[in-house]
Inverse folding.
């Protein structure tokens, strides 16, 4: 697919995000699919940060390591990011008198790089404008390099300053000045974008956190409680921004323990409530998770992953929380772990999570990560009619409430392990909800028989839960007519990749590449991670020459769960654990290497080490 990459680098607080955001918005309106990726240190100001936009006239949901244009707002970008430029790339910088070191001069010659010094201070002085407007000048010049209409940019900026006429006029002058600038050495320079697809103009430009926040509203969430912890904080911020429109109760708690308790109390009273955290914050919530298991109180937790242990890398990404989500807290009990992978299912899966929680009276843990939470997606408008609210066996009908007995609440013999549930204050029988082991109406009972029956009741839910979860989604490579129907024909799979979370979009972009369009490649994506369905994987494994696991953690955690569930060992792994996501070009290279070696060596993929029951 055609792809142009633009990277803006500088210090936190210099306005790199504002430049990236306005260019992204303008290009989307012009008919381009834009994907935005941010890197920044855990500092409010300073350090070295970047905002990268990958642009195409086809759907694109990934970032590559090499860029066409580098915009450096300080000299650190010239020192640190020159190696990332493609052949024929453009360097736009604002550092007067900068002299490139010898190794960079050699790089400039080898890659035919074009260097443009943009005299931002001189232009500001000529306009009588303050330094804060330097980014408007830079944005306008980049906009002109992209051969975009100046009126479109003025319209965008005008939306922000429409009520401030004096400031609006100065911004318009800055746009004219920046747009018309021509470098005296390089002359007029343009970056050739592919022809636009006007279908993208009507799409949303949205982050994963914003998508998840809208999904929570769509799911009927009426209370959000949380404690700020990157990368879950953008979700808290977005929902708080919507508070006056949604009339949702938003509470910033003093810590994660309190946030979990607030949400659990609200859910117990019948209000759909949500909390989100990361890493060690989820550790603090895990005791409340265990309590909810004992009292069979439905709850939903969002676990936004970042590298650990401890504080780790607060502003970077990882997929190291899968085993934590599947195994945390005291005792054995049924839970569900699902993972979003992009802005679409960040919206779609929130109603699903709450429905599962209430249907089975369990906790559902929704995994996301920094890459998804803060990436900028070009998103087709959401279908706001399809979500269904399913509150399970919640009894609210007055006549049915009168028929309830106290023992109905925790009846250990109930089919599927899911009892009737009714709310405090209802005109119905009373029962006790407590953290001690209890009998059918909630009274403490430590007898052997009762303990066995209640444990079996709570864990019996996993059978129905597992049977009702959707199968992992299979994506098929091969876009040419000769390979379009190879999967249905029963052909052997050249390479079967398995992944979850944010890996999905990058791998699907890879499968659409020109290099792999003739290859028989498949990608099996797991959204529902616990309980884990493996029957589909076992069938695909039997017809695959090679199986590879792609995860952003050190251990290959999904692979560990697969082996535990069905015995399939996957020694071939593409693992990344440096705080960065999978980049398009590096993942493409890894897949091509494996395809090449598979063609040379026709050995079958590793099979089952020991017999496992189909899942």
């Amino acid at each position: 697919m055609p792809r142009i990459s633009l990277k803006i680098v500088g210090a936190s607080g210099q306005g790199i995000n504002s430049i990236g955001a306005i260019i992204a918005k303008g290009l989307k309106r012009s008919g381009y699919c834009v994907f935005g990726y941010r890197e920044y240190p855990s500092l409010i100001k300073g350090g070295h940060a970047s905002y990268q936009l990958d642009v195409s006239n086809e759907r694109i949901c990934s970032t590559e390591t090499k860029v066409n244009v580098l915009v450096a707002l300080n000299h650190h970008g010239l020192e640190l990011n020159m190696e990332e430029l493609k052949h024929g790339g453009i360097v736009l910088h604002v550092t007067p008198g900068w002299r490139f070191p010898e190794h960079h001069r050699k790089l400039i010659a080898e890659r035919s790089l074009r260097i443009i010094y943009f005299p931002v201070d001189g232009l500001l002085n000529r306009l009588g404008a303050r330094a804060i407007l330097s980014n408007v000048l830079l944005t306008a010049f980049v906009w002109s390099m992209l051969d975009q209409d100046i009126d479109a940019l003025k319209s965008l900026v005008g939306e922000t300053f429409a009520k401030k006429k004096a400031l609006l006029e100065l911004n318009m002058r800055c746009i004219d000045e920046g747009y018309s600038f021509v470098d005296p050495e390089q002359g007029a320079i343009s970056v050739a974008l592919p022809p636009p697809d006007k279908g993208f103009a009507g799409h949303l430009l949205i982050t994963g956190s914003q998508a998840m926040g809208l999904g929570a509203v769509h799911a009927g969430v009426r209370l959000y409680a949380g404690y700020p912890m990157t990368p879950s904080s953008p979700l808290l911020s977005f929902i708080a921004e919507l508070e006056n429109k949604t009339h949702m109760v938003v509470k910033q708690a003093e810590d994660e323990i309190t946030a979990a308790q607030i949400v659990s109390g609200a859910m117990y009273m019948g209000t759909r409530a949500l909390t989100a955290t990361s890493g060690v914050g989820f550790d603090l919530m895990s005791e409340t998770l265990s309590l909810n298991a004992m009292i069979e109180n439905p709850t939903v937790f969002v676990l936004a992953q970042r590298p650990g242990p401890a504080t780790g890398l607060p502003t970077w990404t990882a997929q190291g929380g899968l085993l934590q989500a599947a195994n945390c807290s005291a005792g054995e009990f049924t839970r569900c772990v699902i993972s979003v992978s992009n802005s679409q299912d960040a919206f779609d899966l929130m109603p699903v999570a709450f429905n599962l929680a209430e249907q089975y009276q369990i906790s559902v843990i929704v995994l996301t990560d920094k890459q998804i939470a803060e990436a900028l997606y070009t998103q087709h408008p959401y279908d706001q009619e399809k979500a269904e609210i399913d509150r399970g066996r919640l009894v609210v009908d007055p006549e049915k409430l009168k028929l309830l007995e106290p023992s109905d609440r925790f009846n250990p013999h109930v089919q599927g392990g899911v009892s009737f549930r009714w709310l405090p204050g209802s005109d119905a029988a009373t029962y006790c909800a407590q953290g001690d082991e209890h009998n059918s109406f909630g009274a403490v009972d430590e007898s052997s028989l009762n303990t066995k029956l209640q444990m079996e009741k709570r864990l019996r839910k996993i059978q129905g839960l597992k049977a009702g979860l959707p199968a992992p989604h299979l994506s098929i490579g091969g876009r040419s007519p000769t390979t379009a129907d190879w999967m249905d024909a029963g052909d052997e799979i050249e390479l079967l990749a398995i992944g979850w979370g944010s890996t999905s979009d990058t791998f699907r972009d890879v499968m659409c590449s020109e290099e792999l369009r003739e290859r028989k490649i498949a990608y099996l994506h797991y959204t529902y991670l616990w309980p884990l369905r493996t029957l589909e994987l076992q069938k695909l494994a039997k017809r695959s020459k090679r199986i590879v696991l792609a995860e952003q953690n050190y251990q290959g955690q999904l692979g560990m769960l697969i082996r535990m569930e069905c015995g399939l060992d996957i020694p071939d792994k593409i693992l990344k654990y440096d705080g960065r996501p999978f980049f398009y070009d590096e993942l493409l290279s890894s897949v091509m290497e494996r395809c090449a070696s598979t063609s040379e060596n026709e050995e079958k993929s590793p099979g089952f080490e020991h017999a496992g029951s189909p899942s």
